[in-house]
Design brief:
Strand content: 15-25%
Shape: globular
Strand order of the largest sheet: 18-17-16-15-9-14-13-10-19
Number of helices: 17
Structural class: alpha/beta
Mean pLDDT: 79
Length: 602
């Protein structure tokens, strides 16, 4: 099949969505990112706004109206239209995998292939070793990386290519359900990994990196992705150097920025201004790895594709919503970083607040990234600003259990003895809109608690005039339906219902309608970093945080954080391995709520 491409209009490349995106044109159905020829065709097709048509024996290529760019703030614009164009009553054809194999094209219509260069800045750090390199290998192992790619590690540490490969190889593993050719795949992947040592603020060192990248890219269209796995105080130095000395000359350049995005509204805004001196907003990918978790991404599917849930998703039926995060370990030698941020900045202002925004948003007009992010911003801007009375903070202390002494937070040698940094926080948030008015959204996050878990708990209202209330005694909460979405570990979704116990009498109990992922799906759930890295390569932004989202999130928490620090509010102490400070239960009781993680199941 011959395909010809007219001259591309000079318009920005819209987000590249190639991974089973059901809302794309039929071209998306057979695509796999691992096939570079398909990937190149789709990239060229979307850049030129073309649609391969079956007209004229499948050889015609009809232009599609370019979509209007959606800005990151301001008035809402029309979403990108990815629908297929019908010509002469014939819908565009879907090319088979074999037909794609012979197509090698690029965005400049030169017929050149494209390549992706992924540079992990801060390659010698824990995050890079434990998360980023293993996630990249998993993508390669399962065929999601393009045919031509190169991975570079960049850090101040002196290291050779061989030493980097040895370091990386110790953290790699193959999927449980795909063990075949594991060693061979690992060897092939490591051959694509290289290292360059340099200072983070040295433009000259990034010029040297640029030369090495060009050697591997050759004459291909070069696309470059930088992952900043470094402390936030050197973000701007690296972004400046990459922008001036190591950006792609003929493809895209994108930068993934790790949290924290500042300490408050002012520092966050300053960071955003600094980044935008060298990058456009659509080049910045602010990563929150919780948005890449399977159950968080499934939240919208659960609500919007199931009629049984969507009508109930409002103040009329939901009594309260709880977002619970707990870790069963403390800082243990890593308190230096944590002490300058605390649990509110580290967990609540980003991970948990993003989940609340996804949970509470209105139905969006499409599955486009900007439509999703626009609705999240509306939720955040509708929230009541947090005050001290809405929050309880705590700090874990030393505790002896089973003959083992567990150290307190201030026993950590990297933490000041008089530190008031909270390791636990519980907060009550309210969304002032017609759907959620008066419904408390309770968030709770802590370290050194009795269990490790992250879950969303939706407690529904009592049944009016319940005929069976006598069967539950005076505790009507026992009769409340509850939807639980367990994000980690052991992912599951279950609904608590009231049910008659088999027998001649009328005895009721609470039972679970349970979707246990490990039992239902044999395939291992991908790591959140795999999903987010692949989305960044594809240009898919829906799981990344936009600058106005960040501004709205900090606007909620900054007044509270300033009050806590200026008034030096002392956190309530709680024993290591306990359920947290007692004050959290009083906070919940203030809104007639009982924490859902206190039941027999826990």
């Amino acid at each position: 099949m011959a395909v010809s491409f007219p001259k591309c209009p000079s318009s920005p490349l819209p987000p590249l969505q190639t991974r089973n995106r059901a809302w794309l044109s039929p071209l998306s159905a057979p695509l796999q990112v691992g096939d570079s020829s398909k990937w190149a065709l789709l990239e060229a097709t979307k850049r030129c706004h073309l649609c391969v048509s079956a007209t004229n024996g499948g050889s015609a290529v009809a232009p599609v109206e370019p979509s209007k760019k959606v800005q990151d703030s301001g008035p809402k614009t029309t979403p990108t239209d990815h629908s297929t164009k019908v010509e002469n009553g014939i819908r565009p054809t879907v090319l088979s995998s074999n037909e794609f194999q012979d197509l090698k094209t690029g965005p400049d219509n030169s017929g050149r292939e494209s390549t992706v260069s992924i540079t992990v800045v801060g390659a010698s750090g824990d995050l890079a070793k434990k998360k980023i390199f293993p996630a990249l290998f998993a993508l390669y192992y399962e065929g999601f990386l393009p045919k031509h790619f190169t991975i570079f590690g960049y850090a101040r540490s002196k290291m050779t290519d061989s030493e980097l490969r040895e370091m990386v190889s110790r953290t790699l593993n193959c999927r449980i359900d795909q063990r075949e050719n594991c060693d061979a795949k690992m060897e092939e992947f490591l051959k694509r990994c290289f290292y360059h040592s340099g200072q983070y603020d040295s433009e000259a060192h990034f010029v040297e990196l640029d030369k090495k990248l060009k050697q591997h890219e050759g004459s291909r269209i070069s696309n470059r992705l930088y992952y900043l796995s470094i402390p936030p105080n050197i973000f701007l130095d690296v972004v400046k150097c990459t922008s001036l000395a190591a950006s792609s000359e003929n493809g895209w350049t994108r930068v993934i920025v790790e949290k924290p995005f500042g300490r408050d509204a002012e520092s966050s805004a300053a960071l955003t201004r600094g980044l935008k001196q060298y990058l456009h907003e659509d080049q910045i990918f602010r990563i929150d790895h919780y948005l890449g978790k399977e159950l968080v991404e499934n939240l919208s599917v659960l609500r919007f594709s199931n009629l049984v849930f969507e009508p109930l998703w409002s103040r009329q039926y939901i009594r309260n919503v709880q977002i619970i995060f707990s870790e069963d370990f403390g800082t243990e030698g890593r308190g230096g970083y944590f002490d300058s941020y605390g649990i509110i900045r580290d967990i609540m202002q980003n991970h948990l607040l993003q989940i609340v925004a996804l949970f509470a948003m209105e139905t969006r007009t499409s599955l486009e990234a900007e439509d999703i992010r626009n609705e999240k911003v509306k939720v955040l801007r509708s929230m009541k600003t947090l005050e001290i009375d809405d929050v309880v903070i705590g700090q874990y202390k030393s505790h002896t259990r089973g003959g083992v002494v567990y150290p307190g937070y201030t026993d950590d040698k990297t933490v000041p003895n008089d530190s008031l940094t909270p390791t636990f926080a519980a907060a009550a948030l309210f969304i002032n809109n017609a759907r959620w008015d008066g419904v408390p959204f309770l968030m709770k996050a802590g370290k050194a608690l009795h269990t490790k878990r992250a879950e969303i708990r939706v407690q529904f209202r009592h049944v009016p005039g319940n005929l069976y209330k006598k069967c539950f005694g005076t505790d009507l909460d026992r009769a409340t339906n509850e939807l639980v979405i367990r994000v980690q570990p052991d992912e599951a979704i279950y609904l608590k219902i009231n049910n008659k116990i088999p027998g001649l009498g009328m005895r009721l109990d609470r039972s679970n309608l349970n979707l246990h992922y490990a039992a239902r799906y044999s395939k291992e759930i991908p790591c959140a970093y795999e999903r987010l890295l692949l989305d960044a390569i594809e240009g898919e932004r829906r799981l990344f945080i936009r600058s106005d989202e960040l501004d709205a999130a900090w606007a909620l928490f900054t007044p509270l954080l300033k009050d806590l620090e200026e008034k030096r509010i002392a956190p309530e102490l709680y024993p290591y391995g306990s359920r947290g400070p007692v004050g959290a239960h009083y906070l919940a009781a203030k809104y007639n709520v009982r924490w859902g993680d206190l039941g027999a199941e826990h």
